[in-house]
Structure formats: C-alpha cells, structure tokens
Design brief:
The structure holds two protein chains of two kinds. By secondary structure, chain A is mainly α. Chain A contains twelve helices and two strands; from the N terminus they run H-H-H-H-H-H-H-H-H-H-H-H-E-E. Among the domains of chain A are: about 30 residues; about 100 residues, no CATH class; about 50 residues, no CATH class. In chain A, helix 4 packs parallel to helix 6 and helix 5 runs antiparallel to helix 6. Chain B is mainly alpha-helical. Chain B has one domain. Chain B is globular. The chains are: A mainly alpha, B mainly alpha.
Chain lengths: ~280, ~270
C-alpha cells in the first residue's frame, strides 16, 4: 500500500511535470515570433487619474510605461492609427507621471511626429516638457522643428526658436534659425532684439559672438532693403528688377553691408530678399 | 516608564527577526542590484533618473510590505491569539505596550530602509560604473539620503495609523483596509485638490474642496514626504523647507499613538 502511494505520488508529479514542460515549451514557441511585446497594456484611464493611482510610485510607473511603448513599437512593423492613439495616451500618461523625464519627450518626438504622423500630439508633449524643463533647450528645438517641417508654420517655429535660444547653453543655431524664419514672416525686428540680447551673454565664445553679430547686421540690412523695395514699388508701381536699381534711382546711397560672402538672393516678381 | 517600554520594543524586534522578515528585505536589496542595472540599461536618456527611481521606490515598497503584511498582522495576532496577556500580566501598562510595540516595529522599518537605502545607493553607484551612467548635474547624495529619511518618516506615520486602526477595529482585515485607504487618500489628497482647482471643475468654495480641506486636517498628507522626482532629476530643492513636514510627521505620529493608547485603554481584551 505504501509503495503504491509513493508510486502514485511520483506518477502524479511526473504527469504535472510533463504537462508543465509541454505547455511551457508551446507558449515559448508561440511567443517567440511575436517579438519583445505582442500587445500594449496602456490603461485607458485619463493621465491625471493614473497619477492618482500611481501615488508615490509615479516615477517608476512612468519608466515602465515608456519601456513598454518602446518595446512594442520596436517589435511591430505595422501599427494602426488606433494603436498610435493608445501609444499617444501612454506618452501623455508617462508625462503626467513624471513631467521631467527626458525619455518621454524624446520618444514622443521620434515616434509620434515621424512614425505616427501625429506632429500636433508630439508638439503638445514637447511644449509641456519645455515648460517643466526650463533649463533644457531640446523640447523647444524639436517643437520648433515640428512646426516648420510638418505644419509649415514658420511664424510659430520662429517664435519658439527665438524663445528657446534664450535658454542658457542653447546652441546659437536656434537663434539663427529663429531669425531666418522670422524673415519669412517679415518679423525681423523681433529676431534682432533676441540676437542683441544673446550678444550680451558673457559665456558665448568668439565664433558664436561673430556669428550672432553678422546675423544682426544682415537682418538690419534686409530691413533696409525691404523698406527701399517697398518705396521703389510705391514710386514705380513694380518691384526693381535688380537690387542695384535701388542705388541707381537713388533710393539708397549704396547697398547695405553684407557680412557673408554670398550675395543677396532677390526675386523681382515678389520683391522678396533672401541671404541664405 | 522607559525601562518597561524597552523590553516590549526588544521583544517585538526579536520577534520580527524570528519571522525572518528582515532577511527577505535583505534578499530584496541584493536582487535590486541586478535589476537596477538591467532595467536602467534599457533606457537611452536620463538613466540616472531611472536608477534613482528604482532605488527609492524599492525602499518605499519594502516598507509598505512590512506595514501591510507584517506589522498589522503582528498587532492583530497579539489580540486574536491572546498573546497580549503574556505581556500585560507583567507590570507593563497598555500605553507602555503600545509605545514599546511601535518602537520595536519602527526599528524594523528603520533597519529595512537603512539596508535598502544603502543597497539603492550602491546600485546607483554601480550603474555609474558599469553602464557609464551620468548622474543629474545637481544630483546630491545628501538629498538622496534625505529622501530616504522622509520616506521612512512617511512609513512611520502609516505605521502609527495602522496601530490606531488595529485598536479601533476588531479584525486585522478591517485594519488592513482602513490603513490602505488612509495611505491612498494620504498620497492623493493634495493631487485631487490640485486637479479639481486647475481644471476649474469646481470653485474653491465648493463643498468638495471644503471637504478635502477638512480631510487634510484629519488624514495625513503623505505626498509632502515624496521628493523622489526632485532627487532623481536633481531639481532645485531647499532642504530646509522640509523642517515643517518633519515636525508635521512627528506630531502626527504622536497624535496617532496617543489616540491608540486611549482606544486601547477603553477596549475590553
């Protein structure tokens, strides 16, 4: 009887062990092709509610959400628009849980703006991140990029770049881009003001100072030329065919200073001037 | 009085050691080393934030487990299994029992926080070595220690509340639920108020806001002790601003213990 009991126990154990090995092997085989994550478990709760549920563990839950989003996107070649909406909610939740986390806005920019074709959603996260990370110029840089590249909104892009350029250690390029876009929207005065302010920064190196100084000169020159072209049109009812005509007809004594080796690019049909 | 409290605290502490809870916590600390390095390595930006998050969250998590699954059970067992008679039959008053028990369990939480805090700091340091992690510019080990201290104080507040709920309720499960609810409300009370006010769902004079304001004088605001995000990101922080929360925490513990003693004295055992 005892031997039978021992054998029965062994048999039951062996049965369960075999079933476990078999089922586990099947699960592993089936999930192998599904990549790192075959489904995304973003709760459909509003971001501010998830913050309440997370309590003091909000930081670590934000990390987990981003990890899940990253692995899901990385393992799925085709993501439907509905799935992107879920992913967007995940980014919003992660941002709400930890608004200072750099990874949130980096991933939102990389995935939402480029892969999901949802630049507006990425911009919302970037702008919110910029408001929190006041020392970080990158959210402003990406938001400005999205405005001009995806939305063709040079005006807002210029505003954002000029504002972001004031952040300590922000690359000079931002101010230059901001001023370049400002010209497109005829707002050179605003960009000159920002560049002059930047010039006062003692931390700037010699090259950056020269670059900003040159840009101020060219902006002022463009302003002068622009006014002269408008004056020319008032008198002759057409735009000058070349910029030299402004000097020829004595509207200007000479063409304003151009610190760059390139000549001004002038379009006589529209009266627009470009310098790069 | 102290010489009577000390043996109760001592017995409680020894009892905890016998239950091997601290060994489990130590094991958790060792596991944290490995997990922190693996988990942090999965991120591309702000790695130090992830490492610090993980370390500090583990300290809180372990403390909560100790309170919810250990301390409440231990207190209730004393009542249910009548082992409390063994203590009270000696010249130990009910108030000495409560204070002694609280000190004993607090000591366990303190040691757990200390051990895990050191483990967390070590795992962050180890991550800086192994995965070339750069700590946030304004990261400070002093503030990291302050964060652990504040988390521990928050846990002690919760423990004192657990004591009160064990004394008030007659069942460990009821005490567990009440403590859990208090923890949840304590963590979120301020957030809920901010959400309601910022979304302009209600006016500041509404009954709900008044109820939250009233509750904030009864229930503990545990979110003031949570500075994990500030520490993890190295955000500007004035450590002296924590003086008021520390006094608040200590006084809250005192009030809870006094109430626990009052209830316990009136209670038939």
């Amino acid at each position: 009887m005892v031997i039978f009991k021992k054998n029965a126990l062994f048999l039951v154990f062996s049965l369960f062990l075999s079933l476990f090995i078999f089922s586990n092997g099947m699960i592993k085989e089936k999930r192998k092709i599904l990549g790192a994550s075959y489904s995304i478990d973003i709760p459909s709760t509003p971001p501010n509610v998830i913050k309440l549920l997370a309590g003091e563990f909000s930081g670590i839950i934000a990390d987990y959400l981003l990890l899940q989003i990253g692995s899901y996107i990385g393992s799925n070649s085709e993501i439907s628009q509905d799935q992107w909406k879920i992913i967007h909610l995940g980014f919003e939740q992660a941002f709400e849980l930890d608004p200072y986390f750099q990874q949130t806005y980096f991933q939102a920019q990389a995935f939402l703006a480029w892969d999901a074709n949802m630049p507006e959603s990425a911009i919302r996260i970037l702008e919110a991140a910029g408001r929190k990370r006041t020392w970080d110029w990158r959210p402003g840089y990406y938001a400005g990029f999205d405005y001009y590249y995806f939305l063709n909104d040079f005006n807002t892009a210029s505003d954002i770049y000029l504002k972001t350029a004031k952040i300590k250690n922000a690359p000079v390029l931002l101010a230059l881009l901001g001023s370049r876009f400002a010209i497109k929207d005829k707002r050179t005065e605003a960009s000159i003001a920002v560049l002059k302010l930047m010039l006062k920064d003692n931390d700037l190196n010699k090259n950056d100072k020269k670059e900003i100084s040159d840009r101020i000169t060219i902006l002022k020159s463009i302003e002068v030329l622009d006014k002269a072209i408008q004056q020319f049109k008032k008198i002759f009812l057409v735009y000058p065919s070349t910029l030299d005509e402004l000097v020829y007809y004595q509207i200007l004594k000479q063409l304003p200073e151009n610190p760059y080796s390139k000549k001004y690019t002038y379009n006589p049909d529209t009266g627009e001037i470009k310098f790069d | 009085m102290i010489h009577k409290i000390f043996p109760v605290a001592h017995i409680t502490f020894i009892d905890c050691l016998r239950n091997k809870a601290l060994y489990g916590i130590l094991f958790m600390g060792i596991v944290l080393f490995g997990i922190n390095i693996i988990f942090t390595g999965m991120f591309s930006w702000d790695l130090s934030k992830v490492a610090v998050d993980m370390g500090l969250s583990t300290v809180s998590f372990a403390g909560l487990i100790l309170i919810f699954f250990f301390s409440i059970q231990m207190m209730s067992n004393d009542m249910d299994k009548k082992t409390i008679y063994l203590i009270l039959s000696r010249p130990v008053s009910k108030s000495e029992y409560i204070v002694g028990k609280f000190i004993g369990l607090s000591l366990v939480i303190l040691i757990s926080s200390l051990v895990l805090g050191v483990c967390a700091a070590f795992s962050v340091w180890l991550s800086t070595m192994t995965i070339n992690l750069q700590l946030a510019e304004a990261f400070s080990w002093k503030l990291f220690s302050l964060s652990i201290t504040l988390q521990t104080l928050s846990l002690l507040i919760l423990l004192s509340l657990a004591f009160l709920w064990v004394m008030v309720s007659s069942h460990s499960f009821t005490a567990f639920l009440l403590t859990l609810m208090t923890y949840f409300v304590g963590q979120n009370m301020e957030n809920v108020k901010n959400i309601i006010l910022s979304t302009k769902l209600m006016s500041p004079d509404s009954i709900s806001i008044k109820a939250i304001n009233f509750a904030s004088w009864i229930l503990p605001n545990l979110s003031v002790f949570n500075i994990k995000t500030i520490i993890a990101h190295g955000l500007p922080f004035d450590a002296s601003s924590m003086a008021a929360p520390v006094v608040y925490g200590i006084s809250y513990i005192g009030i809870c213990l006094c109430l626990s003693i009052l209830v316990f004295k009136k209670r038939e055992i």
